[in-house]
């Protein structure tokens, strides 16, 4: 590889007009400190032994309308003072949403602050959490995964053993089937739909590990069990295990967070979050499902006729406008970009439509790249707000042609006994004063 191509000079646009513009730009004192970091001069100042400040460089006349802020007149914090980086202290309000009743050890959850996030990747510290008996503190050295049952050979793995398999990385959303439940009193997007997040997961395809153990012909299901106090156990059809199911050890480049199942979790792309067993310790290959607590008393769908449907695996298409959304304030008439996220457990998002007139008419939003299968997709929609009270909402259609329903349409089919798999449209009302609230709450 020619390392010269990474040299400083090559990072600068070569044509002389651009060069002279750049010189002019650099002369503009304070602004140059941030600007220069982006341009190649940043490399030079980063290796310079003596710190320079904008104030030393600046010609007073070149300040435009800007005065010199205090942070441009002195060195910043010592390099290396944050061995593990954290957000700016001015972003300390961007945290997971915790209801008053959520701060306890047994069945509980926290929600991603969807209204504060951009793009499609959820930062690890803001990934939603759903725990049934708190967060175990597992020493990976003492953790084992056993694969047994209808296999040619039972196997026991350490985390390092699992890391020796060929690795696989993919971006997938994860959503709790209780997101958001059917009694909606949500003030914000986090409260309305914050039990969904999206990450780049790294691990090994489950089928690779199963192949190592060798499946017996009667194998049809896999029973997965967690090492937490809840002993979370779910039955998974073998087809899913031989398809895109993953054993995950990393999330967004770093090892899983304890909250997400450190040191090892199952990830079943597009399936209800509950089945992606965290702190995974056991995979039992079986010929039938086990009908565990989590697939009988919980995570079944109570139907209008009093019966319950077991095994609703796939999360259907959903979307939500995250900006402007509940709790926010639309400032000023004129242009605003409506932004949101869409996802489907069945594959790619094909289209998102936005209505800004209480659902009377719908227009196509722009899907931002990348549009990935079973991942969050970002959509944007240019909007002119004339200052009237309006209801804005989005609806997603996935590549199978399925379209996200209204809550009325959903309840017509499912009734009101159930608590899971509510993928209905979330409408927001923008009042004349710009205040945004949940239009159904
Ligand atoms: N061992 C174990 N696995 C578990 C759970 C749990 O409590 N224990 N919760 C499940 C539920 S209901 C969901 S929605 C997802 C949540 O994953 P997250 O906390 O990483 O967002 O994990 C699932 N896996
Ligand atoms: Mo869940």
Secondary-structure class: alpha+beta
Give the biggest sheet: 5 strands, mixed
What is the straight-line distance between the termini? 59 Å
**Spans of at least 5 consecutive residues with low confidence:** 1-49
Strand content: 25-35%
Could you say what the CATH topology of the largest domain is called?
A: Sulfite Oxidase, Chain A, domain 2
Bound compounds, please?
A: ligand MTE, molybdenum atom
Radius of gyration: 26 Å
Kindly state the percentage of residues in helix: 10-25%
Structural features, described:
The protein is of the alpha+beta class and 441 residues long. Strands 4-3-12-7-8 form a five-stranded mixed sheet. Strand 3 and strand 4 form a beta hairpin. The termini are far apart. It binds the ligand Nc1nc2c(c(=O)[nH]1)N[C@H]1C(S)=C(S)[C@@H](COP(=O)(O)O)O[C@H]1N2 and molybdenum atom. Molybdenum atom (MO) binds next to loops.
Which features characterize this protein?
single chain; Sulfite Oxidase, Chain A, domain 2; Immunoglobulin-like; 2 domains; 5-stranded antiparallel sheet; 23 strands; 26% strand; globular; disordered N terminus; binds the ligand Nc1nc2c(c(=O)[nH]1)N[C@H]1C(S)=C(S)[C@@H](COP(=O)(O)O)O[C@H]1N2; binds molybdenum atom
